[in-house]
Write a structure and sequence with these properties.
Layout: H1 2-14, H2 16-25, H3 34-55, E1 60-64, E2 68-73, H4 79-91, H5 95-111, H6 119-123, E3 126-133, E4 138-144, E5 156-163, E6 166-169
Parallel strand pairs: 4-6
Antiparallel strand pairs: 1-5, 2-3, 3-4, 5-6
Helix pairs in contact: 1-3, 1-5, 2-3, 2-4
Length: 171
């Protein structure tokens, strides 16, 4: 399940490239007016993000309520990557180049851990944290709720394990 979830997160992370490209070149289907089709395209990453939040219920359960040595909010850490997706998509001139570049970006994103960041999750009230546990392990937590500013208040219940160092909070 974790492998499928990682693919879904990678699609979420890279979906903006084809969406922005399709809007730029004026893609439409079946006579749908351009503006309506563009809005529908913009809904795709949002719907996929909701699906990935729902699917996270099937990941294995974990709790991280150990004390941490340090933590940092990582909400803005990957935003330059997303801006890069927009700018690259706007500069591509043909479909073949877009497809090849998308495949390359998809593979690199899948192999890295940048697919865990999804700016749409911010709209749903999730925040991203880099945490160094008391035992010296670095973990990445995607948690819903108010921003945590005090390391003494860190306690994540009902976490779902994406991999050994990345978790998403459910509920």
């Amino acid at each position: 399940m974790n492998y499928i979830y990682k693919i879904l997160l990678t699609i979420n992370a890279t979906m903006w490239m084809p969406v922005v490209y399709a809007i730029k070149v004026g893609t439409t289907v079946g006579g749908i007016p351009q503006i309506i089709f563009d809005v529908l395209l913009l809904c795709i990453p949002i719907i996929l993000s909701l699906i990935s939040i729902g699917v996270s219920s099937f990941l294995s359960f974990d709790v991280q309520n150990r004390k941490c040595q340090e933590f940092s909010l990582a909400d803005n850490e990957f935003l330059p990557t997303y801006l890069g997706y927009f700018f690259v998509s706007l500069s591509i001139e043909n479909k073949t180049t877009m497809i090849l570049l998308y495949i390359i970006v998809f593979v690199f994103t899948f192999l890295s851990q940048t697919q865990y960041f999804n700016p749409i999750f911010l709209l749903f009230g999730y925040h991203y944290y880099n945490i160094l546990t008391e035992s010296g392990t670095r973990i990445f937590v995607i948690a819903r709720g108010k921003v945590i500013r005090n390391k003494e208040k860190i306690s994540f219940d009902n976490l779902r394990r994406i991999n050994d160092t990345t978790y998403i909070q459910k509920g």
